[in-house]
Amino acid sequence: MKQTLINLVPPATVAAVLAFWAFAPRAWIEAPWTIILVGLAVIALVQLLELLFERHEGWRINGTELATDIFYVVFGYGVIGTLSELLVTEPMMELKQSLGIATPWLAELPFLVQVAVVMLVFEFGQYWMHRAMHNWHPLWLTHAPHHHVTQLNAMKGFIGNPIELFLISLSVIALLDVDLPALFAAFSTLGVIATYAHANVRADPPFWYGFFFTTIRNHSLHHTALSYEDTRCNYGNSVILWDRVFGTYREGESAVVGQDDRRRLSIREQFLFPFRPPPAGQAETSGQ
């Protein structure tokens, strides 16, 4: 019974986040810090669950890992978020206005339908960008640092080379007319799912959840240390459905994650990784 309840925690968190955005006062929704606070609250919750319901002892968080993870969360919200807004979202909204692109019918759809549309569209782009990173050498060099993590934890989804972090944030959502609560609910929900998908939490959600959404089982296999080739599956960051549709879904789990000799990279090494000389005779960085 206890394990059954633990398994329900990820879908329960998703439901709680959706309820918040559906019923929160408009002033809260429009406040610039609300969506960040929701994201941080989810991370804190899942990090606590790692301590209470540990999945793998080898992934147990330590001071160095925690400090690095916190750095990347701050970097992701502060730097990558700002760059995405200035270089992508705002220009795209200007382009939308200049071309007269409008989808007002989207905002008239039921709340949950709008949320689903945003999640599917955003993750469709993430899926193909992520897949390209595993199949084209220049892009793989930006993505490889994320695969050099040697344990999975609640904040590990934020870790990576800045070029990759920016590229994976790109989307066409700014071209859609979606009600603000639904838009924020979609991104918060994607964040919940991705956080659990990287977390050292002993939770295996029900089949219906795992059919549509990425779980730690799916994503640990994507991070497996077996070989570079074995990571070329389960690309969905939050929506595993696209892997099922395009034939890249693979069943299984891996308790040992990392690449090359499984040496943990420092922040400096992660930032400079795409520009270092390729290690002689190592197929992991081939990205072919």
Automatic annotation (TrEMBL):
InterPro entries: Fatty_acid_hydroxylase, Sterol_Desaturase_Related. It comes from the Bacteria. GO terms for molecular function: iron ion binding; oxidoreductase activity. Residues 116-248 form the Fatty acid hydroxylase domain. This is Sterol desaturase/sphingolipid hydroxylase, fatty acid hydroxylase superfamily. It is found in: Membrane. One of its GO terms (biological process) is lipid biosynthetic process.
